[in-house]
Design a protein that fits this description.
mainly beta; 8 strands
Length: 150
């Protein structure tokens, strides 16, 4: 097992995430359309991914003036495949209608090798400056993409 940090991305326009945990490890609070810049320690993951690997996430929405938040939520979701070369921070992505996705990756949103499909990134977008710098770096260092991903 390897201890990795926990972060979150809130893809919800009008709700904050007051707090969340993954398998008991707490994550940072997230403002609407916020996240990816704060990290908490730690959740344990196996070095080698195995089919059926899951994470249980619990979370609460924030409240505000004239706003009653939805009740606390909990969901158990699959952790998609990763390799020892590309595993990293455990990212929890919060979407409208109490949907979540969890990935372990060393790449932040905006990086061309981030494992989530681009349609799941909004409001974040591919950062063209990161793409140019990364392509130059990959060519210079002759880096191969982990896991044979495209």
């Amino acid at each position: 097992m390897v201890a990795v940090s926990v972060t979150g991305y809130n893809h919800i326009k009008n709700e904050s995430i007051l707090g969340f945990s993954v398998n008991g490890a707490s994550g940072p609070n997230l403002s609407p359309y916020g996240g990816g810049s704060k990290f908490n320690c730690c959740v344990n993951l196996p070095v080698h991914w195995k089919p059926g690997l899951k994470a249980t996430v619990t979370w609460e929405y924030g409240s505000g003036p004239n706003h009653t938040p939805p009740p606390p939520q909990s969901a158990t979701v699959d952790i998609p495949e990763y390799t020892p070369e590309d595993m990293g921070t455990l990212q929890v992505h919060f979407y409208p209608n109490h949907k979540i996705k969890v990935v372990s990756t060393m790449y932040g949103l905006g990086h061309p090798w981030h494992p989530l499909p681009k349609e799941d990134w909004a409001p974040w977008e591919l950062d063209e400056a990161v793409v140019r710098n990364w392509e130059w770096y990959v060519e210079k260092k002759q880096i191969k993409r982990p896991s044979g991903k495209q």
